[in-house]
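Researcher: I'd like a candidate sequence for this fold, 294 residues long. If you have to choose between options at a position, lean toward the conservative one.
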């Protein structure tokens, strides 16, 4: 039975008017499975949980320690693995998120002392994936921020922003700035496709079956999906499968490459090797060896 998730597309984080920022701890069976955006900046740390992260037009696996910083209006979805949705299951997700409102910073952005933070906010409009030593330090500060109050919490908050503003260990996650709010009808459509693909990418997905989810012809769906995501559905599906293979190659040493090929939805080993090298720049064997030597 397919599960349908319905939530407001453009969400509000309910930051109290008396606060500069708001820290929220998430402990759930799974993260929110809705493709959505909101009007605040978001710094999100995965403390526990695995799955696939969709930010703008990028698709990547996530695991504990995953840290991202997003500006307002960037659509996103952390889709936990299907095993988290099964019943019974003892798996759970744990995350920390810091929200703050863009409007609160407007009077400060013209000050010299905030130049680096202003530049950080501009980078965040593309979405930032933070890694390395910077991510480790920021994660520690976020955990401390959860239990801080008053002036101490402000100090921790500005330490985090200061570290992010000088951080070199990051990747941008979207190829353009997102200024306009996400429309609900578009979000519902893309959310339907993303969740369906995340559940079924290990099997063959015909274009007509996914087009039927949106009551479209295959031709109309192909045109629509490419226009909204800047990639074809077949490219997106291959990307999803390759990212799953990356995760298995780096974490499942007991599984051979043939097993990983078929568990990721590829029909032949030759096609798997070819597509993997196209997306990652090396063969699955070379990718696995890279992690074994770390």
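Model: Candidate sequence:
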């Amino acid at each position: 039975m397919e599960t349908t998730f319905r939530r407001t597309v453009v969400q509000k984080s309910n930051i109290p008017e008396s606060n500069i920022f708001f820290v929220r701890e998430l402990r759930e069976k799974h993260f929110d499975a809705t493709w959505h955006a909101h009007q605040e900046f978001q710094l999100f740390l995965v403390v526990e949980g695995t799955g696939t992260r969709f930010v703008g037009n990028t698709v990547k696996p996530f695991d504990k320690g995953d840290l991202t910083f997003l500006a307002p209006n960037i659509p996103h979805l952390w889709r936990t693995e299907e095993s988290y949705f099964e019943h019974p299951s003892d798996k759970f997700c744990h995350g920390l998120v810091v929200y703050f409102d863009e409007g609160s910073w407007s009077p400060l952005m013209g000050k010299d002392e905030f130049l680096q933070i202003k530049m950080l906010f501009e980078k965040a409009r593309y979405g930032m994936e933070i890694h390395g030593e910077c991510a480790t330090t920021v994660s520690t500060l976020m955990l401390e921020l959860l239990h801080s109050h008053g002036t101490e919490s402000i100090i921790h908050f500005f330490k985090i922003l200061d570290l992010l503003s000088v951080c070199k260990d990051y990747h941008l996650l979207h190829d353009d700035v997102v200024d306009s709010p996400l429309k609900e009808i578009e979000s519902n459509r893309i959310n339907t496709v993303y969740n369906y693909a995340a559940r079924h990418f290990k099997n063959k997905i015909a274009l007509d079956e996914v087009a039927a989810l949106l009551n479209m012809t295959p031709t109309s769906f192909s045109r629509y999906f490419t226009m909204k995501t800047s990639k074809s559905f077949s490219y997106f599906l291959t990307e999803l499968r390759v990212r799953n293979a990356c995760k298995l190659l780096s974490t499942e040493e007991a599984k051979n490459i043939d097993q990983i090929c078929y568990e990721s939805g590829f029909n032949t080993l030759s096609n798997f090797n070819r597509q993997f090298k196209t997306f990652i720049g090396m063969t699955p064997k070379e990718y696995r060896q890279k992690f074994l030597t770390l």
